[in-house]
Amino acid sequence: MIKTIATQPYSDQKMGTGGLRKKTKVVMQPNYFENFMQSIFNTIGDSSGKTFVVGGDGRFYNAIAIQKLIKMAAANGVAKLIVGQNGLLSTPASSNILLKNKTDGGFVLSASHNPGGGNGDFGIKYANETGGQIPTSISDKIFETSKQISEYKIFDAPDIDLSRLGTQKLGDMEIEVIDSVKDYVEMMERIFDFSAIKKLFANGFSMRFDAMNAVTGPYAIRIFEEVLGATKGSVVHAIPLPDFGGLHPDPNLVYAKELVDFMFSEHAADFAAANDGDGDRNMILGKKFFVTPSDSLAILTDNFKLIPAYKNGIFGVGKSAATSSAVSRVAQAHNIGYYEVPTGWKYFVNLMDSNRITFCGEESFGTGSSHIREKDGIWAVLFWLNIIAATGKSVEEITREHWQKYGRSYYMRFDFEGITTDIADKLMADLENKLPLLNGKEINGFKIANAAPFVYNDPVDHSTTKNGLIITFEDGSRIVYRLSGTGSSGATIRVYLERYSKDNLNAEPLAMLTELLRIALDVAEIPERTGKHQADVVT
Ligand code: G1P
Ligand code: ZN
């Protein structure tokens, strides 16, 4: 029943910031998915006795890929798979199931916030027993293996019925199909004050949650509408669709425009949020008010005492280097640990495992805690609802009071997309070479205090990672440059800008950052080298 199929290697199966991400059409090439999965199994070595979690965000090609994965796992001697019903599991739900069942790892078939469909993207995230995505040392091995692969193993059997809950067998392998939502809801009930949030909704508080036609729809309906009592219809775009209904399931001001327009209209709800394709990102909105993810991390951290699971204290907080420094002031005020890591959630895993941090976040709409080892969209939304229920204040009041207390980090990100890889690589290399010359220079009134690549030394495994270039000014303002590691073609240059003010709290972010933006473009010669005078996406 186990077939060994001869195959030719592909040269591009290198994982980026969050797993392997490719055009769906690339993944649909003969044996492409199989090669990659076999490279993982070969890297793991002996899979006998091992258990893995399997799920996905429901995007196009998921149903086919998941059947291949199951049959390949059986052929490679895996003992058991725990699979989300109909192949659905959000990334945070998967991490929870992985940790709860002490499994050996898990697979989420998702390209996260990237568009789906035949012309969109497909992806595979692989987590190990930590519940978090594998470190680069392992993904490098998988990549090396994929370049030499000559055969893969697959079980020859009809497709497994993934709509049926319970246990089935494929050869010696057990397949347990589980309710995709249940364990996740129970975990959230253990963390937050559900009765306080129930009261909030019972008193007429209104909310809109945009699931962007992706995986969080069923989770959000169960939690917000059925358990907490938000009005029916509060969750919109709630049915996971293979192409996300043509939406780009990335919860930000650009792609969640419908929700943003609603919240800036006369009919706005008291509170709104959106999640991305696989449920690990979140955007928070109040009435005519947007909370930057960097501020959100700072505000959640400052309010940890309001949450049952954290009220007795937290270890510390981590942020990616590109994220604004807002949370650093909170960490200082509470005298808790503070860590800056490279972009990518996997860098938080060691810090969580070693009790150095409890909370962490990225400017890219990611927030989470050590309840799992992935960022968690619905967790962040519940955290905000819990703060609102406990304080009786609106999103805007909570945020403005935060600025009053700590000052405000004006922050924006500018993405220059679709750039030829060679041009982008050269731009970054030339900029890096130029950085030492910038130290101490003054440009248009901004004096540079330090200009250097960001280098992270992991305090636990002592690995070193270099990611991005940072120019820090004497007034604390910063420019961060990075190349995206999640695209499926070409290159994206990300430019992150930050400027702090203790008392000027009500300015327009763009007005505060215009000069820095000009400096950022000039210094890196972005217009000259890319032909772009404006960013494609601004968040
Ligand atoms: C992007 C974000 C990063 C996040 C990752 C996965 O990666 O910038 O913060 O961890 O998606 O969601 P990038 O494309 O910048 O490499
Ligand atoms: Zn995601």
Task: Describe this protein's structure.
With 539 residues, the chain is an alpha/beta fold. The protein folds into 3 domains: 179 residues, 3-Layer(aba) Sandwich (Alpha-D-Glucose-1,6-Bisphosphate, Chain A, domain 3); 223 residues, Alpha-D-Glucose-1,6-Bisphosphate, subunit A, domain 3 (Alpha-D-Glucose-1,6-Bisphosphate, Chain A, domain 3, 3-Layer(aba) Sandwich), CATH 3.40.120.10; 131 residues, TATA-Binding Protein (2-Layer Sandwich). Helices cover 34% and strands 26% of the residues. The chain is built from 17 helices and 25 strands. The strands form 5 sheets. Strands 2-6-5-3-4-9-8 form a 7-stranded mixed β-sheet, with helices on both faces. A 7-stranded antiparallel β-sheet has the order 20-21-22-23-24-19-25. β12 and β13 form a beta hairpin. The mean pLDDT is 97. The site of zinc ion (ZN) has 8 residues, from loops.
In the CATH hierarchy, the architecture of the largest domain is 3-Layer(aba) Sandwich
* Number of distinct beta strands: 25
**Uncertain runs:** none
Bound molecules: 1-O-phosphono-alpha-D-glucopyranose, zinc ion
Measured on Cα atoms, how large is the radius of gyration? 23 Å
CATH superfamily of the largest domain: Alpha-D-Glucose-1,6-Bisphosphate, subunit A, domain 3
Classification by helices and strands: alpha/beta
- The share of residues in helices is 25-40%
**What percentage of the residues does DSSP assign to strands (E)?**
25-35%
Number of helices: 17
What is the total number of structural domains? 3
Any idea of the CATH class of the largest domain?
Alpha Beta
Mean pLDDT: 97
The strands making up the biggest β-sheet line up spatially as 2-6-5-3-4-9-8
End-to-end separation: 52 Å
CATH-assigned fold name of the largest domain = Alpha-D-Glucose-1,6-Bisphosphate, Chain A, domain 3
Choose one word for the global shape: globular
Subunit organisation of the chains: single chain
